[in-house]
Amino acid sequence: MEQEIHFVKLNPTQNMTILVETAHPAKAHKDIATKIMSYDSVYAEQVGFIEEPISYKADAHLQMAGGEFCGNACMALAAFIMSKQELKHNRVKKILLEVSGTDSLVECEVKRGADEYYCQVTMPIPKEIKQRTINHEGNKLDIVLIDYGEFVHIVRNVKDFNERVKEEAQSLAKSLALTLNVSLIGILLYNQDSHELEPLIYIPHLDSMVWERGCGSGTASLGSYLAWKNKRETTIHVKQPGGTITAIANYQERKLISLKIEGSVGIVAQGKAFITV
After folding, report:
1. Residue 123 DSSP one-character state
2. Same domain, 133 and 88
3. pLDDT given at position 232
4. Which residue in 18, 59, 106, 156 is deepest, having the highest Cβ count within 10 Å?
5. Active site residue: 74, 108, 119, 215, which one?
6. Which DSSP string do the residues of 211-276 spell out, in sequence order?
7. Residue 231 has what pLDDT?
8. For 44-194, where are the E strands, in sequence order?
9. Are residues 28 and 102 in the same domain?
10. How many domains is the chain partitioned into structurally?
11. Number of Cβ within a 10 Å radius of residue 50
12. Domain containing 157: what range?
């Protein structure tokens, strides 16, 4: 049976994101997402569903297809809401979102630019950050584990982003999924000399593995790791294949107080998609 899906496609730092406007039961999210993000459909790296919020304080609820939390998708939805409210050029407005993968309301500050929106999003603070040495396929790997409870990010310091390193990252993500009960595993390859990041995002529930061109949540994790490591407030502009995202980590009294990211969002397309379910 063919189903009509109303969607908007957005571009937060080339982390192409589809937001579904029509209401669908949760059990259908995985199938819809898999089909609409495929090459022969609308095509994107991730899919979220816009739903009515439970809290009266929230402007909307964002339910990601894999149940994960996504900073870039938060920025995308905030920009879309502001476009519908016809936010004036250079004006700034704040909204609150309910988002899958976190129990806290997410604050988004949006500024309207000439042809895109500039967003600052308050991100979840990691529950734990720790350095570990793990055995993987006969090799000892030095990693930084950033644990949010619902999802984890792994930071690996690398000198370059060659195929061997990338294949190892993909294998590591699959391996960790067998032992960690989480909605998302991110492997963040980071060159600390050039401040470049290559983020791999694996969502076990969807069996979706993508080398993202820009990762907001990964940028936040990197900022939190550097603040934790250096024991001070940190602002870092992280270069990624799709552009730059900024992380702002407020570190006081030996702990992270707040964590934010900043980036730009463009609205690419809006319309109807037709998929067979």
Report:
1. P
2. no
3. 95
4. 18
5. 215
6. E-S--HHHHHHHHHHHHHHHTS-EEEEEEETTEEEEEEEEEETTEEEEEEEEEEEEEEEEEEEEEE
7. 94
8. 46-51, 60-64, 92-99, 106-112, 117-122, 128-136, 139-147, 151-157, 184-191
9. yes
10. 2
11. 20
12. 128-258
Exactly one of 70, 74, 108, 119 is catalytic; name it: 70
- Amino acid in the structure at residue 113: G
For residue 119, indicate whether it is catalytic.
no
> Across the chain, how many H-helices and E-strands are there?
4, 16
Half-sphere exposure of 11 (CA within 13 A, CB side): 11
pTM here? 0.92
Q: 10-residue block means of pLDDT along the chain (277 residues)? A: 94 97 95 96 97 96 95 98 95 97 95 96 96 87 94 96 96 94 96 96 94 97 96 96 97 93 97 92
Same domain, 134 and 90: no
At 110, is the secondary structure helix, strand, or coil? strand
Examine the domain organization and report whether 146 and 245 are in the same domain: yes
What are the φ and ψ backbone dihedral angles of 28, each rounded to 5 degrees? -95, -10
| pLDDT at residue 243 in the model | 96
Examine the domain organization and report whether 111 and 166 are in the same domain: no
Q: How far apart are CA 61 and CA 63, in angstroms?
A: 6
pLDDT at 277: 75
Residue 253's CATH number: 3.10.310.10
Q: Is 215 designated active site? A: yes
